[in-house]
Amino acid sequence: MLEHIHSSPIYFVTVDDFTSIQDEIKTCLKKVEFKIDDEHDPSHSLSNGYDEDIMEKHSFKKTNAEIYKHLVLYCKSLDGDALDILETSYKNKTFRRRSWLTLSKNGNYTRPHTHSGIDICGYYHYHTNRHDGDIYFQTPNKGLEMGQCYNHKAKQWHHSPNLGKLMLFPGWVPYGVTQNLTNNHRISLSFNIQLMK
């Protein structure tokens, strides 16, 4: 018997309520000003700081509903009591969420990083030409790179952006976005969710 333990659960799906979500973000974009965050990562522009929740501030009701639906599906697929923790945290309003929009112009990229202490990270492609930078994931197990039998499992996993694509993944998985080598401006919605019973 062989068991693959300590895997990195990456969830991706095309959203069902695409038009409503696009409309909510489009309305929000008229009210925000993107700025480079020199303190954390000067390689792209953000709509607000990492300590705000743009989805709450701009009433992303349809987006919230769609994301919650997929959070339930994601947590159902995890072992343990992830679904119970999610539902209790949302019911009791004890979860903490931060969200922001990211603008990536020609030459911009996102350095590989993790979100320490965050249960679930999310990434939604609002505007892309599919060639303006891949999101990529690295193994959290650096030991894989050391052995000849396992180093093929240490390679980066790349995902080309797609309009309406939602991704959910653990905060401990290192990820980044490759450089935008096009003249298209890629815009994405990112969020971090910390669950508490």
- H/E series, N to C? EHEEHHHEEEEEEEE
Helix content: 10-25%
**Computed structural class:** alpha+beta
Proportion in β-strands: 25-35%
Mean pLDDT: 91
| CA(first)-CA(last) distance | 35 Å
What is the CATH superfamily label?
A: q2cbj1_9rhob like domain
CATH architecture: Sandwich
Q: Please report the total strand number as a whole number.
A: 11
Helix count, DSSP H or I runs of 4 or more residues: 4
CATH topology title? Jelly Rolls
CATH class call = Mainly Beta
The backbone outline, from C-alpha atoms, is: globular
Can you tell me the residue ranges where pLDDT is under 50 for at least 5 consecutive residues?
A: none
Biggest sheet character: 7 strands, antiparallel
Question: How does this model look, in words?
Answer:
With 197 residues, this protein is of the alpha+beta class. The protein has one domain: q2cbj1_9rhob like domain (Jelly Rolls, Sandwich). It is 22% helix and 29% strand. The chain contains four helices and eleven strands. The protein has a seven-stranded antiparallel beta sheet. A four-stranded antiparallel beta sheet has the order 5-10-7-8, with no helix packed on it. Helix 3 (61-77) packs antiparallel against helix 4. The longest helix has 17 residues, at 61-77. It is globular and about 55 Å long.
